[in-house]
Give the backbone structure.
Amino acid sequence: MKRLVIALILLGTMSLAFAQAVKLGYVDTDRILFESNEALEIQRLFNLDKQNWTSQIRALDQEIQRMEQDFEIDKLTKNDAAKREAQSRIDAKKAEAGRMLEEYFGEGGKAEQRYRELIDPLTTKIQNAIIKIAEDEKYTMIFDSSYPTIIYAIPAIDITDIVLTEINKDTIAPKDLGLPGSEDENKEEPKLNDTEINKTEEVNKTEEIKQP
């Protein structure tokens, strides 16, 4: 059904071309949601929240492991009532961990809610930017190449870069996305120039000569 609607739109556009000039364009919204400065900032903020939730769950798992280890050590000296009580505390803690996992990362959980809270304003901004560009540049129709709606398109009508520029014009790209070790991984190791390499080789040769 969707493809039929698209085909009818294309046929209507082709018919319109006989009556007036038609200007078509397409935009890759998925690319904008990955590359725009605000999308990168959203990813950074979401990663920080996700790390916080993951740390809470990990701490609870570690507590459960300690409780189980203590139970194994003490069960030889405890009576049946004490062992049942200890096992009950472990089961309650496991149930708490399960609830926390579902609360944070389950369907409709805090992670999903937080991401929607962060991404929805950007989605609206992208839509408004596309409409603005379409009106300013007199486009007849703009397609979204993130969905299977384009059979062929020449790069000349790709306006993704124009939309990215519009989205990014009042923002700055974040340097750290909130991922562990992201700063260190982005740093390049210092490179020696030819003079420094020659000096290093001379020092190594000298050290070899000095050795008995």
